[in-house]
Amino acid sequence: MYECTLCSLSTTRKNVVVGRGDPKASVWFIGEAPGEHEDESGFPFVGAAGQELNKALEFLGLGQGKYYVTNVVRCRPVENGRNRAPTDEEKAICGVKLKDDIARWRPSLLVTLGKHSTMYLLGDIGNMYSNVGKTFSYDGINVFVMLHPAAILYRAGLRMMWERNLGELKKVIP
Prior knowledge:
- The protein has a single domain, classed as 3-Layer(aba) Sandwich (Uracil-DNA Glycosylase, subunit E).
- By secondary structure, the chain is of the alpha/beta class.
- The N and C termini lie far apart (31 Å).
- The protein has helices at 36-41, 48-60, 88-105, 115-122, 128-131, 149-154, 159-172; strands at 19-21, 27-31, 68-71, 78-79, 82-83, 109-113, 135-138, 141-146.
- The longest helix has 18 residues, at 88-105.
């Protein structure tokens, strides 16, 4: 089991949440940080947002062994018992492991889920909504920008954008 004590998140987490799927897969999905369900289980995207991601994986034709799911931050950021966004410091400390993993496994396509993972890998690319569905490059690897699946749970009006972008993503999957 992977253990880490590099930041204060290690004092409140239950599990380090590394990834699910196959890190040798050509397509990686990268979120921001684990939530409560992920902290309990030790696996990323197992809550309601994970159910949406699982539907997307099925639509994309990505079965077991064809994808990897991880986060920039591997421990749950929590405040007053509720999830919170990871700080820039937490992303900087924990994200080094993500970048090391990307360099080691060299997937063909990185799919960033939401602004935190997008900005972590690509820097400030401007308005998130205007860049959803676009492809950028990180260290010679294509990066496809998506909404975080939780966004469509909290803002039903974004579902059409999510579904349109899934169609676009399906065209660029290696």
